[in-house]
Amino acid sequence: MCFCILKLNVGQTSNYNLLSTHEKSSMNQASDQKSDQPVRKGASESSLEDDQFIIDAKKGDQRAYKKIMEKYEKPLFFHVYKMIKDQNQVEDIVQEAFMKAFKNLESYDTSYAFSTWLYRITTNHTIDYLRKKKLKTTSIHNPIKTKDGEMEIEISGESKTDRDIIRKERKQIINNAIKNLPEKYRVVIEMRHLEELSYQEISEELDLPLGTVKAHIFRAREMLYKALIDKKDKF
Question: How many domains, the chain?
Fold first, then answer.
């Protein structure tokens, strides 16, 4: 029996050697593609589809990123809307959550469903937004309760001036980064964040499909993030 197996293997090797370079390449590519297929046991069809999107996205396939956004944009919108009843703000948070997820794909543990990971990122980002908003809306003149009673915080004119200078410096840095964006991205980001127009209003103003407007804003934010990352100590 061992002789037969050896003979068969030799025959297979000989046949492979007779193949053309193109045929060998096709066989190897097919083998590589097969090894890339999602193999997580017990996963739903939708979850396995996500796994394939992630594999393709990690290879740089931009279509995979688009498919992920198309699949989860609405579910995430309604998920965040339960916590924040501001449609425009919800759309921004969802886009920012996608950005966080895409930037951290390498840290995604493929033994768990991608949807669970994405929802966790979105939820945490929403909580961060609510926490920051609460801090901003809390008056600094409200007395703070301590064991020794209530204490008011007084802000000196000098510290206020310092804050104004820092705020202006930040604004200037951001404006410069926006001005350096390609025009199609600069226009939409200015309309969204400076003029505070909604996605729908930008779509109507520029006569562009709503999906295109969202894609441009998403790309503009990515470019701004990269431009400002080395200046994060200013923020």
Answer: 2
